[in-house]
CDGSH iron sulfur domain 3 (Pongo abelii), 127 residues
Amino acid sequence: MRGVGAILRPAARGARDLNPRRDISSWLARWFPRTPARSVVALKTPIKVELVAGKTYRWCVCGRSKKQPFCDGSHFFQRTGLSPLKFKAQETRTVALCTCKATQRPPYCDGTHRSERVQKAEVGSPL
């Protein structure tokens, strides 16, 4: 019976064997890039939504969701490397959620959409 050391030593492996880590990491890199894509402007105005106390929401960070301001999984299928911001509503109330993705208080709108930078940007393009 061989010891674990014999399996790990390069001399014990055949020359035709590939490094399995390399295969896995290249597959993962395709789906989860090391450098995430930048968020894109979904809309240039916030969306008012009634949040229900205690309910968990997933706010779209990437800007590619068709269900703005919430995530529909587009970040995964478009391989952005981004993931949604999960948050729980503390109280039932109507709030303005950001869709320009430039807010300093995600997921809530802080008025950044009024800036010249956002207004000059095209919907669907990164800032």
Q: What stands out?
A: The CA atoms of residues 52 and 92 lie 4 Å apart. The first helix runs from residue 4 to 8. The helical segments are 4-8, 20-31, 74-77, 116-120. The chain is about 20% helix and 15% strand.
